[in-house]
């Protein structure tokens, strides 16, 4: 049955959970997926997210970027890269792209740096510019001096 | 006498262009490289934040004190500012 309204979406999702014993995370995934389908929104997909993996130098600091798949600390399904400082601090920062956009033509980027989380909407096409993504990842740790 | 702090002791918020730290947990580095016995010895006097990775630093001077109450817990913050308007908020009571 194709979903017609939010009640149908919720009913279908609840039924999906019942049959598989899936977790709350799966319920969120299913809801996001069905709402996106209802609104005609395509999920964001990266063919080779690991392409951004590697070691980078930034302002005399060495960083390691690694694609980790989904960050479970975020309720919504996402693509997440970890940025690790290769110094004594070993601090980790994260950059996530939410899989299901809520606004046509835009993607939501969630940054978690120095323990602070921020969210912004960006044009979807920007995401597929690998140099832009690299810059966003390495500047995640930028300090003002 | 200069009172200096390593930048890694502070939380940096790019959106508000500000640092934040809790005074009792700071380590103040003296000119001879030793750590002062008090976490925040110069009180409302100026201090420096150093970023040894870039060689950069800023001097921060006291601007104002903020007090408030959240859910029955009172707090005090001292707000410092650099010459180029970077803010540094130090939580005095936590």
Main sheet of chain A, how many strands, which sense, barrel?
A: 6 strands, antiparallel
Helical proportion of chain A, percent range: 25-40%
Strand/helix succession of chain A: HHEEEEEEHH
Shape of chain A: elongated
The percent range for strand residues of chain B is: over 45%
DSSP helix count of chain B?
0
Structural class by helix and strand composition of chain B: mainly beta
Low-confidence stretches of chain A: none
Rg of chain A is: 17 Å
Helical run tally of chain A = 4
| Helical coverage of chain B, percent range | under 10%
Number of strands of chain B: 7
The total count of strands of chain A amounts to: 6
Placed side by side, the strands forming the largest sheet of chain B appear as: 1-4-5-6-7-3-2
Distance between the termini of chain A: 57 Å
Would you mind describing this structure in some detail?
The complex is a heterodimer of chains A (145) and B (94). Chain A has 145 residues and is α+β, with helices and mostly antiparallel strands. In chain A, 30% of the residues lie in helices and 31% in strands. The longest helix of chain A has 15 residues, at 6-20. Chain A is elongated. The termini of chain A are far apart. The model of chain A has no long low-confidence stretch (mean pLDDT 83). The N and C termini of chain B lie far apart (27 Å). Chain B has 94 residues and is mainly beta. A seven-stranded mixed sheet of chain B has the order 1-4-5-6-7-3-2, with no helix packed on it. Chains A and B meet through loops of A and strand 2 and strand 5 of B.
SSE layout and pairings?
The complex is a heterodimer of chains A (145) and B (94).
Chain A lengths: L5 H15 L3 H15 L15 E5 L2 E9 L8 E8 L6 E7 L7 E8 L2 E8 H4 L2 H9 L7
Antiparallel strand pairs in A: 1-2, 2-3, 3-4, 4-5, 5-6
Chain B lengths: L3 E3 L4 E3 L4 E5 L24 E5 L4 E15 L2 E10 L4 E7 L1
Parallel strand pairs in B: 1-4, 3-7
Antiparallel strand pairs in B: 2-3, 4-5, 5-6, 6-7
Q: What tags apply to this protein structure?
A:
A: elongated, B: seven-stranded mixed beta sheet
């Amino acid at each position: 049955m194709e979903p017609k309204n939010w009640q149908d979406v919720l009913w279908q999702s609840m039924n999906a959970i019942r049959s598989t014993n899936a977790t709350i995370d799966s319920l969120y995934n299913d809801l996001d997926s069905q709402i996106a389908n209802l609104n005609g929104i395509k999920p964001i997909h990266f063919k080779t997210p690991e392409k951004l993996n590697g070691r980078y130098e930034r302002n005399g600091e060495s960083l390691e970027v690694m694609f980790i798949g989904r960050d479970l600390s975020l309720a919504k399904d996402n693509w997440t890269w970890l940025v690790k400082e290769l110094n004594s601090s070993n601090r980790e920062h994260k950059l996530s792209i939410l899989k299901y956009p809520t606004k046509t033509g835009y993607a939501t980027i969630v940054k978690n740096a120095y323990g602070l989380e921020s969210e912004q909407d960006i044009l979807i096409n920007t995401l597929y510019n690998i140099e832009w993504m690299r810059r966003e990842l390495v500047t995640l740790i930028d300090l003002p001096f | 006498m200069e009172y200096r702090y390593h930048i890694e002791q502070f939380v940096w918020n790019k959106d508000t262009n500000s640092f934040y730290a809790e005074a009792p947990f700071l380590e103040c580095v003296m000119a001879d490289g030793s750590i002062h016995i008090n976490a925040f010895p110069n009180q409302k006097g100026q201090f420096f934040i150093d970023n040894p990775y870039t060689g950069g630093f800023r001097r921060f001077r006291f601007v104002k004190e903020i007090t408030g109450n959240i859910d029955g817990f009172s707090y005090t913050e001292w707000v410092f500012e650099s010459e180029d308007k970077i803010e540094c908020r130090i939580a005095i009571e936590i």
